[in-house]
Amino acid sequence: MSIKAAAGRIVANVLDLARTRLELAAIELQEGAHRLLGYLVWALAAAVLGLFALGLVILFVLVLFWDTHRLAAVGGMAVLFILGTLFAVTKLRAGLAARPPMLPATLAELRKDAAALKGEEANGI
Fold it and tell me: How many other C-beta atoms are found inside a 10 Å radius of the C-beta of residue 84?
């Protein structure tokens, strides 16, 4: 076998390995995008329905206490919203801090490839 043929096979193998890793990355990105779109649709539905429900609850409380304690009712609703906002911000920060890394399988395969190449280099020297 000539050096030119061996070098050609090595280049072909490296290109095939890179193609496989890129295909894996593309599949993971597509799955992540579909999952994110589903989350966004459900979040939008929950937000719209929640806002309607919240508006009706506020209207109910204000009408219920309008004649007797209207300022207390408005103040109570404001405190409730502030507490809800703080809770949502806390949950959002915790969720963002705990999110998994992007493309975990692709990165793991690339680490294996790098370790295998380093092992081959060490054995070859």
Answer: 11
CA atoms within 13 A on the CB side of 13: 8
Indicate the number of domains in the chain: 1
> Along the chain (125 residues), what's the average pLDDT of each consecutive run of 10 residues?
82 86 87 87 89 90 89 88 88 84 80 78 52
Residue 64, CA atoms < 13 Å, CB-side half-sphere:
10
76 within 8 A of 61, measured Cβ to Cβ:
yes
Distance (Å, whole) CA 78 – CA 72: 10
Quick one: DSSP state of residue 125? -
DSSP state of 99: P
103 Cβ neighbours under 8 A, 6+ residues apart: 25, 28, 29
What residues make up the domain containing 77?
A: 3-124
Radius of gyration of the chain (CA): 28
pTM: 0.51
Cα 47 to Cα 89: distance, rounded to the nearest angstrom: 15
